Amino acid sequence: MYLTRLAALLLAAAVGSCGSSSDPGGAPRAQDDACAIFAERPGWQEATRAAALRWGVPVELQLAIIWRESSFRAAVRPPNTYAMGVIPTGRPSTAFGYAQAIDGTWEWYVRETGNRDADRTDFADAADFVGWYASRTMKVNEIGPFDAYNHYLAYHEGHTGFRKGTWRDKAWLQDAARAVAAQAARYRGQITACPELT
């Protein structure tokens, strides 16, 4: 009887901790609602605003890219697509964290910003990274700050890949970019309609 009760308590504790909103790495519950995200994670509102001020990149663009890349999960990695025969080079992706930044690009960000303590599993650092990258995209690829569709293509393909049009034969990527654009528009409407967030 004691062991059964103990097992039940341990199971309840484990289940309760899995969905805890206090877990900094756990995804927010309402991912399609910017107001609900910021109500649940006030620090994320501050982080995206700081990145917006620093880099001139709208909050909704930061959120939409992170939503698409990780579904707001801190320590996520891409699936081993090489094992499924998708990556012909045989090199698994080093993408990691909220922004799914690859090692080389993250190191470039750290060097350029001097943010030596930056961590891909820290939301504020991920938002700043997205802001930094998008600000470079605006300069290098001449993409406006509210053009989420093309920002996502450049984010995925890199500045040079975007310029070369490597995305043109990737229908799945264009679909993903359309989803990011729609999500950014949704977030923008929500943010402007939430008095506590303006």
Automatic annotation (TrEMBL):
Alphabetized PROSITE patterns for the sequence: PROKAR_LIPOPROTEIN (PS51257)
Highest taxon listed in the record's lineage: Bacteria
Segments forming domain Transglycosylase SLT: 8-194
InterPro entries recorded: Lysozyme-like_dom_sf, SLT_4
Keyword flag Signal: yes
Extent of the signal sequence: 1-22
Keywords: Signal
Gene3D superfamilies: 1.10.530.10
Annotated SUPFAM superfamilies: Lysozyme-like
Protein name, per record: Transglycosylase SLT domain-containing protein
